[in-house]
Amino acid sequence: MNLNGKKQGQTNPKNCGGKNGDSSNRENDDAQLKDSLMASVITEKPNVRWDDVAGLEAAKQELRSAAVLPIKFPELFSGQRKQRRGMLLYGPPGTGKSFLAKAIATEVESTLFSISASDVTSKWLGDSERLIKQLFKLAREKKPSIIFIDEIDALCGSRDAPGANPLTLGLKTELLVQMDGVGNDNEGVLLLGATNLPWTLDPAVRRRFQRKIHIPLPDEKARRQLFKISAEKMEVPLGKTDYIELASMTDGFSGSDISNALQDALDVPIKRVQNAGFYRKVQEEGKGLFMPCEESDGGAIKMTFIDVPRGMLKAPVVRREDIFAVLRDVKASVSQEEIKKCMEWTEQFGLEGA
After folding, report:
1. Which is deepest, 66, 110, 213, 284, by most CB within 10 Å?
2. What is the model's pLDDT at position 163?
């Protein structure tokens, strides 16, 4: 029994009518499956440019070859030269795999399906396979298209692994059939998978990804670039030596670790407002505003944020020292064991993306 009180693998009651109702029920159900999948289509550009992705030049080049060039210059892919049909991005958590997919969605004029395991799994027997079939059917109808499946290991774990769920076997089989394009033309459809655990993938699924690209932790140069991109957006004045020092402090950090630390730095002014015991009045655009300050500052008034009238707060900015202070307390989230396993898998099956 599952949490809904239904037996796993139970047949969908909508598909249990008599012969006359089978066809119409199936058509209606397929339409519902199609509608649910349409919700996964990215309709607005994520506004992530290739330049926003620090480092990973090899990965960006491979993705341009697979997703950008075939759409912009289809004449390059004729005769025996074919567009890649499947690419796998793998590496430790937080290294930019999903960010790369967003860059593709921004730069490429194609339909992007952003899929998670929950989008294509169902408690009803047979519906998961039909969801996969409908997904690829939709992608072919709307090509050029990209199907991005995040955490693809949740769908395509090895069938021989201990504890493997036999009820997902049909889903994996259907995915393999659709990836091969048996009986269908998959030209113009790119399957882009992402995983933190490539070694758990079923060998048959692994084989169908023509390119398997390792997205590693950012090196020192990439970390400097990450801080530069973020500091400009945060309007924090940092110099060249600051970027070098920050990159040195964050050895072993993922891009996500750095992003989270900078988010903590953005929260420092909020804490400054909450903890301040003195404020001083400043003029901005002819309006008197209250700004947190030290007792020794000229014009300091003993008060707390509770005493500041609504709409009269001058929000303090993030300072250089705020970023350094936050980073001294932050730890890397990726273990050496994870890094080692990704490198070993790369030596056997993958390509370096940095």
Report:
1. 213
2. 62
Same fold across 35-217 and 220-331: no
The DSSP line for 95-148 is SSHHHHHHHHHHH--SEEEEE-GGGS--SSBTHHHHHHHHHHHHHHHT-SEEEE
Backbone angles phi and psi of 56, in degrees to 5: 55, 40
* Residues contacting residue 122 through CB under 8 Å, at least 6 positions apart: 12, 128, 131
Q: Which residues contact 133 (CB under 8 A, 6 or more apart)?
A: 174, 178
Rounded Cα–Cα distance for residues 326 and 315 (Å): 19
SS3 339: helix
Which 8-state DSSP code applies to residue 26? H
Q: How far apart are the first and last CA of the chain?
A: 46
Pick out the chain residues at pLDDT < 70. 1-29, 125, 162-167
User: CATH code for 35-217?
Assistant: 3.40.50.300
Q: What's the CA angle centered on 139, arms 70 and 14, to 5 degrees? A: 170
pLDDT at 314: 94
Per-domain boundaries in the chain: 35-217, 220-331
CATH of domain 220-331: 1.10.8.60
Of 214, 177, 202, 191, which Cα lies nearest the Cα of 84?
191
Helix (H, G, I), strand (E, B) or coil at 85: coil
Whether the upstream peptide bond of residue 144 has omega within 30° of 0, thus cis, is yes
Of residues 210, 163, 213, 206, the one with CA closest to residue 190: 210
Long-range CB contact pairs, 321-328, < 8 A, 24+: 322/265, 322/268, 322/269, 323/231, 323/236, 323/238, 323/246, 323/261, 323/262, 323/265, 324/245, 324/246, 324/249, 325/268, 326/261, 326/262, 326/264, 326/265, 326/268, 327/246, 327/249, 327/250, 327/261, 328/249
Query: What does DSSP assign to residue 18?
Result: -
Give the residue among 13, 9, 7, 6 at the shortest CA–CA distance from 165.
9
Kindly report the length of the chain: 354
pLDDT of the residue at 8: 43
Please tell me what DSSP assigns to residue 10.
P
